[in-house]
Amino acid sequence: MKELENKVALVTGASRGIGRAISLTFAKAGAQLILVGRDLDALNETSKLICELKLGPTPLVCQMDVLDISSIANAVKLALDSFGQIDILVNNSGITGRSAPLWELEESQWDEAIDTNLKGPFLLSKAVIPSMISRKSGSIIFIGSITGKRPLVNRSVYAASKLGLVGMMRTLALELAREGVRVNLISPGFVAGPRLDGVIAQVASDQGVTLEEMKATWLEMVPTGKFVTPEDIAQGVLFFASSRSGATTGEDLNISGGLVMYS
User: Fold this and answer.
1) In 10 A of CB 262, how many CB atoms?
2) Domains of the chain with bracketed CATH
3) CA-atom Rg of the chain in angstroms
């Protein structure tokens, strides 16, 4: 029997990057997936990959905005009407926000990052949790960041939003501990891909150096000498989603190549 066979998993931000890697990993483990996000074409591409590679059951695809309550309600209703349960919720959607000193940030830029990265997971978790409580079973996984634990210049709003997730996760884990619902968080380090390239390019521009020079500087900060991959993150999420972590709740797991070794 596969690790997530007969489990239903809702994954946000499943259109690309970490979210797509989680979706492929879950499908291979046997999960029935509900792929949600704003980019319907990219979500369908993730679903197509799963089907073409014959990784698992055909996913359900649903366009959803994590800040739109009616959109969230529709996605949760679709999942419950289709499968009768949501066993696993992965709160992965997020944005990097503007890279700038705090005093140069516009209020709208602060609000956008805090709303997307912190309020969004709150709204979706709030919508899913009652069904988990009714079944006395569930696993909720948040995707945080090492940013804030190891501060990066000009990343104040991103750090605030992701560290806020840690506080919400730990409190929620305590609130749900007797309800059979586990709550944990992954803190990725520097994850190879277009998003990281964009952040490094912005920092390089701010400091007047080339992209290659700045990328080499960031790599030097990582003890293993290499960036982590979306697939590395997906394996950590799979652990928290599976019965292997049945006695684990309220944990913040760094997957950073040793960049951060503390919670």
Assistant:
1) 8
2) 8-191+229-255 (3.40.50.720), 192-227 (no CATH)
3) 18
Catalytic residue among 26, 142, 158, 227: 158
pTM: predicted TM-score of the whole model, two decimal places: 0.96
In this structure, which amino acid lies at residue 97? G
Q: What is the distance between the alpha carbons of residues 253 and 73, in angstroms, rounded to a whole number?
A: 30
Going from the C-alpha of 191 to that of each of 59, 228, 256, the distances in angstroms are 25, 5, 8
Torsion of CA 186, 30, 138, 116, to 10 degrees: 50
Query: How many CA atoms are closer than 13 Å to the CA of 260, on its beta-carbon side?
Result: 21
d(CA 3, CA 179) in angstroms, rounded, equals 22
- Residue 221's H or E segment, with its range, is helix 211-221
Could you report the per-residue pLDDT of 187-207, keeping only the tens digit for each?
999 999 998 998 899 889 888
Judged by DSSP in three states, 252 sits in: strand
Please identify which residue in the block is written with the tokens 């309550």: 69
Share of the chain above pLDDT 90, in %: 92
- Average per-residue pLDDT for the chain: 97
Active-site annotation holds for 158: yes
Per-residue pLDDT tens digits for 204-237:
988 899 999 999 999 999 999 999 999 999 999 9
Long-range contacts (CB closer than 8 Å, 24 or more residues apart) made by 66-72: 66/12, 66/93, 66/116, 66/120, 66/121, 66/123, 66/124, 67/115, 67/116, 67/119, 67/120, 67/123, 69/123, 72/123, 72/124, 72/127
Length reported for the chain: 263
